[in-house]
Each structure stands twice: as structure tokens, then as C-alpha cells.
Amino acid sequence: MKKLKIMIIFIIFCFSFFLLSYFKTRNYELKYEKDKYKITEKYIKTDKNYVINVSYNKDNYTFIINDKYHRSRKLVNSVRKYENDDEICFKIKFNQKDISPVCKKNGEFVSYHLVSNKMSSKISIKNKSQTKENKSFEYKNIKVDTLNNKKILIWNYHGFYYLDNKNSKIIKISNKDIYNPSLVGQIDKYLIIPDYDQGYEYNNIKVLNVDNLKIENLKLNDSLSDESYVLGINDNSIFIFDKKYEKEFEIVPYKLKYRTINPKIYENGKIVNKTSTSLSNKEETFIYDTTYDYKIINEKLYRINKYTKQKTLLSENKIKEIVKKDNTEIYYISDDKLYVYSDKYGEKKMLEYFELNFNYKNIIYIFD
């Protein structure tokens, strides 16, 4: 009887171990062929991303698919290649779902929204999705095509023009003309702005809640000079380094609190200690662990994925400033216009403002 109990317990243990192993999410990489193309299939559990490479003529056409973990393997159901003059596009079906094409034009990877009409017809991109809404209006010489369901604040030298789908208004911050509000910082639903009326050194920071448009004051026991710059954000804090006084400030807007700390930055969520000299000379900023990075190279906008470093052209406009970016959307300025790009709907003009011909750095802030 005792032996039977031990055997039953052993069987239960083994079965439980099997179930845990079977359902456990894990990284993997495997290679196989589909429709005569070589496929490399990876799963990155920390990012919850599948990375699929289709090999063709010594090039890898990379598909990054954010999806839940599947116990099945060899999830690419089909591969199709389309050609038109100097254009090549690949489409795959992944786990029975169609994935957006990956294309090359003139030997360069480009957004599939930039291919010719003939290629678009071949890859069946007939009705490209639109932005989330399309309400056009004009306010203070700002011609709005769409806000994409965002709240947008544009610096007007004394404060902000506030735009959303329901109303527009002026938010006054300063009595002085401020042409380069370089110390404005954005985090969550807040903007932090030095009290520019104090001159070149500040012991007061204005905290603007973009949800209710209320402004509160955060009093400082330390002086913050105009030789400061924003390092980045981590959790609920925004960090500023003052090159003149060689101090780093950690500010928590929702608590209206701050502290001075030893020099450091965050790289992919991890603390990296720095020296004051390093932060003063190099103006280092935080590095974030994102699937995509965006860069302006020779006035062109490119997206670079972190797995294969594949560089993809997103716009045919001349780009002079990136305003905001994340894994799915990027906002940027070309001439006197603000644009947004997403794989879902391509490039869309959001607004046109003549002042952007002259001043465009650090003057536009975008909130959900």
C-alpha cells in the first residue's frame, strides 16, 4: 500500500512537471523552409515579440510580430514575393493571420506605404487605414487636419496653444518672450516648466496637468540654472541635470516633490552611474529598451529595429525634427507641418503652422 502511494505521488509529480514545462514560455530559434524560402523564426519572451526573417538574395526581410506565445512552432503558413520594376515586397501569413508587407525600393527598405500604386495593387493594399479621427479646424493660424485623438500643446513664447477634439485655448505660463523653452519636460499627463519670469535661474517649477489644465508650483530649495537639460524619465520621475551647479534633480510631478541625487542615467531600465563631467560635456540622456529606434539621416526619417538593425525609410519628406516616438507611432516636423506615421495608416499630416519655419525645437508636446 505504501509503495502504491509513493508511485501515485511520483506519477503526479512527473505529470505536473510535464505540464509546467509544456506551458512555460521560453525563447527559441529555429530554421526551416516555406514556399522555397529560408525562414528563421525566433520568439523573444521579454518583449513578447516574434522575429521572422525571410532570406532572399542575401537579404533578410524582417517581420516583427507582437503576439502571445504559441506552443506550436513553424508558424509561417505562407510566403509570397511580389516584384515591380525596382520594387520587391514580401508578405507572409503567420499563424493564419496576414502580416503587413516588408518592401524594398531602389535597393532600400521602405515602408509599404511608399511603394508605387502598381505594387500596392499587387500586394492588395487598397484601402489604407485612416487616423483615428479626421476633424479639421483652424485656431490661431494653426491649420489642423487631424489630431489623431491626441491633445497637442504648442509653445507660443508666453505659454501654450492647447488643442484637442473638443476645445482650444491659450495657457499662459510666462510674461516674458521665451523663444527656446529647452527645459520643458514631459512625463505621463504632466509638463514641467521653469518659472521663466525669474530670469536665468529658477527656484520655482510650474507643473501643468494636461488632463485638467491646472498649474501648480513646485518650490525648490536649490537653484536650477538655464544651463540645465532633461536627461529622461523613469517610472514616475523626470530627471534634469544642471551643468552650471553640477547637480542632478529627480522630480516627481504628481507629488510636487523633488530631490538632488548623485549623477546617473538609466539604460534600458538599469542605473548607470556617471560623473558630473560626463553629463556636462556629453549631455548624455536615458536609453530606453524599445523594439524600434528612429533616426533622421540626411533629412530622411528611418526606423531601425533592435534585433536585426534593418533600416526602413518611412517618409519621402525632408524631416527636421522628431517630436515624439514609441513602438507604433512617430510624430515629426517637415517644413511648417507636423506629421504622424504608423504602419496602420502610413504618413498623415496633422497640422500646419507657419511659425514652424523658424522655431520648431521643443515647442510641440503630444499627449494621449
Would you kindly provide a written description of the structure presented here, covering whatever features stand out?
The protein starts with a helix and ends with a strand. With 368 residues, the chain is mostly beta strands. It has a 6-stranded antiparallel β-sheet with strand order 10-11-31-30-29-28, with no helix packed on it. Strands 5, 6, 7, 8 and 9 form a 5-stranded antiparallel β-sheet that branches. A 4-stranded antiparallel β-sheet has the order 1-2-3-4, with no helix packed on it. The chain contains 3 helices and 32 strands. A hairpin with a 2-residue loop joins strand 23 and strand 24. The protein is 10% helix and 50% strand. The radius of gyration is 25 Å and the shape is globular.
What's the topology here?
Layout: H1 2-23, E1 28-34, E2 37-44, E3 49-56, E4 59-66, E5 76-84, E6 87-94, E7 97-98, E8 102-105, E9 108-110, H2 117-122, E10 137-139, E11 142-144, E12 151-155, E13 159-163, E14 168-172, E15 185-187, E16 190-194, E17 201-209, E18 214-225, E19 228-234, E20 237-242, E21 247-252, E22 257-261, E23 264-267, E24 270-273, H3 276-282, E25 292-297, E26 300-305, E27 311-313, E28 321-325, E29 329-334, E30 337-342, E31 346-353, E32 364-367
Antiparallel strand pairs: 1-2, 2-3, 3-4, 5-6, 6-7, 6-8, 8-9, 10-11, 11-31, 12-13, 12-32, 13-14, 15-16, 16-17, 17-18, 19-20, 20-21, 21-22, 23-24, 25-26, 26-27, 28-29, 29-30, 30-31
